[in-house]
Amino acid sequence: MAKKSMIERQKKRERMVAKYASKRAALTDVINDQSKPMEERFKATLKLAELPRNSSATRLNNRCELTGRPRAYYRKLKLSRIMLRELGSFGQIPGMVKSSW
User: Fold this and answer.
1) Eight-class DSSP state of 76
2) Sequence-separated (6 or more) residues with CB below 8 Å from residue 67
3) What letter does residue 39 receive in the DSSP assignment?
4) Nearest partner of 78 among 88, 90, 66, judged by Cα
5) What's residue 10's pLDDT?
6) What is the DSSP-derived secondary structure letter of residue 80?
């Protein structure tokens, strides 16, 4: 089980990303538009830099839904490898059987 503080920090980042997504998208559109004057694009760059760091989507980590583990994450199931194996062993994931011979 991951530390509660790390899980809560991740939730806070997710909320912040959602809050600033439209503002970030608008600023990046201005920055990438070559037809705009250089001064306007530079001002947009400065405004983008003033936004909180945690509002960037690249700062999000994938975490297991059950344990909060950040590593060995299966995107399709939103689980870590440990929980995937455990749930598979108990037969709680359809079509998955732990191999034995």
Assistant:
1) T
2) 1, 2, 80, 82, 83
3) H
4) 66
5) 92
6) E
DSSP code of residue 70: -
Q: Which pLDDT value is given to residue 98?
A: 76
- Token readout for 16 is 């912040």
Residue type, 73: Y
Segments in the chain below pLDDT 70: none
Q: Which two tokens stand for residue 36?
A: 């705009």
pLDDT for position 50? 96
pLDDT at 27: 96
pLDDT attached to residue 29: 95
Query: So what CATH class is 1-61?
Result: mainly alpha
Partners of 73 in the β-ladder: 80
Q: Give me the pLDDT at residue 96, please.
A: 86
Domain boundaries, the chain: 1-61, 64-101
> Which contiguous run of DSSP H or E holds residue 5?
helix 4-32
State the Cα–Cα distance between residues 29 and 36, nearest whole angstrom. Answer: 10
